[in-house]
Amino acid sequence: MRDNSSATTIIRPVILSRSTTGLWWGLLGVAAFSFTVPFTRVAVGGLSPLFIGSGRAVVAAILAAFALTLTRQRLPQGRQWARLAVVAAGIVVGFPLLTSFALTTAPASHGAVVIALLPAATATAAVLRGREHPPVAFWLVTAVGAGAAIAFAFAQSGGFGQLDRADVLLLGAVISAAIGYAEGGLLARELGAWQTVSWALVLALLLMAGLSALSMAQQPPSASPAQWAAFAYLGVVSMFFGFFAWYRGLVIGPMARISQVQLIQPVLSICWAGLLLGESLGWTTIVGGLAVILCAGVAVRVRLNPQRPEQNR
Per-residue pLDDT for 231 more than 60? Predict the structure, then answer.
């Protein structure tokens, strides 16, 4: 029979497009990160926030050192070390420590809403770092999103002017991570995506190991198996393997589309807080979360799709 005969059926293998493959990798990374806030809340129930914030970085740094050595990555050069220090200060030191201290008192769902500012904050940091000139709409939407997050924090803390210490720490964590992500995104073009995160972890290893030792001297770790499991997840997945999946998705791309997947992370975190921790989700949490996520999504989209000037005819 000929191939075009009606009695012949040609079964073609299903091959995922690059964009679909990148999307799935990005979703895997976001899913891994979405457990960070709830599991941090679990871990602080038995471990000191200083130990959690620094110890998880030590675990991830050891894994990063093995990965860099096994794959024989070249050493960063010159100013790259200074830029790695900025990345490390933001995502290895600042964000883990600040969120750990904040979540000793703040519910995980509350933390997830404030941290929902991160995509818009990262876009803002990238604009400032790259000296871009986005449309006025970008700044307006970003300001509205920040205002929504702060209003939510005020409402949860007892009213205007009653911003809680945990909210200040969470906002500081967002700023730290945004700066680290923006600088890391630029540096990844030179060193590679997961390599940039790994070198940042290794660079901060001595500092974080020292802080871990200090925390153990002040308060020897004593936790339940569930709390140790949460800590292990934070070190192995949240600070290391999650980045592999996330950056793999960004590399496959398209980056503009994959980066917006991060907007579902706070939604997942809030869901995990309710399902795993039994936290009640009041209307302020739901409305505040939706407002911040919506503004972050619009801000990211406006930055990625700036209005082009009309061509001269």
Answer: yes
160's enclosing H/E stretch is none
Q: Residue 110: which residues within 8 A CB-CB, separation 6 or more?
A: 156, 166, 285
Give the model's pLDDT for residue 312: 44
Q: Which pairs from 208-216 meet CB under 8 Å and 24+ separation?
A: 208/54, 208/55, 208/57, 208/58, 208/61, 208/92, 208/93, 209/54, 209/58, 211/50, 211/53, 211/54, 212/51, 212/54, 212/55, 212/58, 214/50, 215/48, 215/50, 215/51, 215/54, 215/55, 216/51
State yes or no: cis peptide before 13, omega within 30 of 0: no
Query: How would you write 83-125 as a 3-class SS string?
Result: HHHHHHHHHHHHHHHHHHHHCCCCCHHHHHHHHCCHHHHHHHH
Between helices 18-34 and 36-43, what is the axis angle to 10°?
Answer: 20
Q: What is the pLDDT of residue 58?
A: 97
How many beta carbons lie within 10 A of that of residue 304, not counting itself? 16
pLDDT of residue 21: 80
Tell me: the pLDDT tens digits for 194-225? 899 999 999 999 999 999 999 999 988 888 99
The answer to whether residues 149 and 296 touch, using CB atoms and an 8 Å cutoff, is no
Question: Would the pLDDT of 308 be above 90?
Answer: no
**Cα dihedral sign, 183-188-194-197:** negative
Please check the confidence at residue 269 and state whether its pLDDT lies above 90.
no
Q: What is the pTM (predicted TM-score) of this model?
A: 0.81
